[in-house]
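Researcher: I'd like a structural prediction for the single chain below. Treat it as a standalone chain; there are no partners to consider.
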Amino acid sequence: MNENWGRIGEKLNSFFFWCLEKHPGKLIGFLIGFFTALCFIIFGFWQTILLAGLSCVGYYVGSWWDEGEFPLWLTRLLHRINFKSK
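Model: Treating it as a single chain, here is the predicted structure.
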C-alpha cells in the first residue's frame, strides 16, 4: 500500500514540474485562483480583500527594502514609530 502512495507522489511531483516548465502562466494563474477561492470560502469576502490588500502592501515594502530605497514618507513614518516606542 505504501508503495502505491510513493508512486502517486512521484507522478504528482513530475506532473507539477512538467506544468511549471511547459505552462507556467496557467499553473500560477490556477494556483492564485484556487487559493483566492479558498480564502473566500474560509474567511469571507471582506477579510479576503483585506488579506490581499495587506499582502500587496507588504510585497511593495519588501521590494523597496530589497532595493534599499525606501520612499521618504515611509522612512519618516518608520523613524517616528521607532523613536516613540523608546
